[in-house]
Design goal:
By secondary structure, the chain is α/β, with parallel strands linked by helices. The chain is built from 14 helices and 14 strands. The protein starts with 18 loop residues before the first strand and ends with a helix.
Length: 406
């Protein structure tokens, strides 16, 4: 099956390396709560090793035990091969070739979903490894940065199980983000639906009240995005609420209905007073093609730890650009994925913001402790182009050891 894949863009012949092994780490916070709607309580981290002692690190946003099985499971036939076995002995600079072999070789079990999510972590680790091997940041290997700064947005954190506590926590989080210098932020407003915060069941009017309170707290100059986490079952119900949200000037509305309801999504795009954003759960360019062509979303949100890796995410960015759509990558993991997302954003002209939670705003200890990204919020509310080799983050192996459960 001929389709395009990406490998590093190099100006010199790379060193001769071979992959010799992969370590898979299942990480879990000891105080995790399965009732929370947050995947930052766990992580799946891989380390890819070579015969010259160089290694690369990657991460995916998926159930870590499942991801580990997807990589380590032995193959039994040509349509269900082992990702680990396909990786061992390969040239780490042939990232595109490996991705194609893994996609085709695991197709009966993969193609979408968990296998692709797990493959994302391996692919990310290969980019990190290659950057370290040649002493270049990953954005340089992706063809070169098209800008030197980008604007991050802070994801506001709710708390409590009562309406007033929820509203006040989001307002306080918005005020903290603004005090830190953020010029853009995204507020969760999910007090009903399948992923309601704390099992809440509040009316649609209460959702509008929360949005009004956050906008009032930050004023009109800050860019505000809204994530409702699949709150409504259909476009009609959604529109009956969000038509009144135009006065709050949301830059986009994220995942208002189920991401498989492409015809309903298209109706929202046609009638909603703000752009519609989707894509956090999707894997491969093929799902994003359906999202953009049939669902007609204005903002695509590939997650480097789910879509298939950094190269696949870049292809999605290019597909969106060809269709005149914007990109705002999703990212809800540690500094490993945050760093990978930043490198992607710097090579995508149609990427307007990246999701970024500094330690001061991060509630989950695991996400805060495992890795420190090479990103600092400047006085102008932007972050500068990374310059370190590879993905540039610093891993805390003591933290990895503390959180590793398998």
């Amino acid at each position: 099956m001929p389709f395009r894949t990406l490998s590093p863009v190099l100006s010199t012949v790379p060193p001769k390396l071979r992959v010799t092994g992969i370590d898979c780490h299942v990480l879990l916070a000891p105080d995790y709560d399965a009732r929370f709607t947050s995947s930052a309580q766990d992580s799946f981290v891989v380390v890819v090793h070579t015969d010259q002692g160089l290694s690369g690190i990657g991460e995916c946003d998926a159930n870590p035990w499942m991801a580990k099985a997807c990589i380590e499971a032995p193959g039994t036939h040509t349509m269900g091969l082992s990702i680990r076995d396909l990786l061992i002995g390969s040239d780490p600079f042939d990232i595109g070739g490996f991705w194609r072999r893994a996609y085709l070789g695991s197709a009966m079990n993969g193609r979408r979903g968990m296998v692709i999510h797990a493959l994302s972590a391996v692919e990310m680790a290969l980019w990190d490894l290659c950057g370290k091997a040649v002493g270049r940041p990953v954005h340089a290997l992706l063809g070169g940065a098209t800008r030197d700064r980008i604007t991050p947005y802070a994801s506001l954190q709710p708390a409590g199980r009562r309406f007033e506590d929820y509203r006040d926590a989001l307002v306080a989080s918005a005020e903290r983000a603004q005090a830190l210098g953020f010029r853009a932020m995204k507020t969760e407003i999910t007090m009903n639906g399948p992923y309601a915060h704390g099992g809440m069941r509040e009316s649609w009017d209460r959702h509008t009240e929360v949005l009004a309170a956050v906008r009032k707290a930050i004023g009109p100059e800050v860019t505000l995005m809204v994530d409702v986490q699949y709150l409504w079952e259909d476009a009609a119900t959604c529109l009956s609420v969000v038509r009144d949200w135009a006065e709050f000037d949301p830059w986009f509305l994220e995942t208002p209905i189920w991401s498989d309801n492409l015809d309903e999504i298209a109706r929202l795009v046609e009638e909603a007073p703000m752009p519609i954003a989707f894509g956090e759960w999707l894997s491969t360019r093929f799902e994003f093609a359906e999202l953009m062509d049939r669902g007609r979303v204005q903002v695509a949100q590939p997650d480097v730890g789910r879509v298939g890796g950094i190269g696949e995410a870049k292809i999605v960015c290019e597909m969106a650009a060809a269709r005149g759509r914007r990109i705002v990558p999703h990212c809800w993991k540690t500094g490993i994925s945050i760093s990978a997302t930043a490198h992607l954003a710097f090579v995508a002209d149609n990427c307007d913001f990246i999701e970024y939670l500094p330690p001061q705003l991060c509630h989950e200890r695991l996400r805060r402790d495992v890795a420190a990204e090479e990103l600092d919020l400047g006085p102008d509310g932007t972050i500068a182009l990374p310059v370190r080799p590879g993905l540039g983050f610093e891993i805390d192996w003591d933290a990895v050891k503390r959180y590793t459960v398998a």
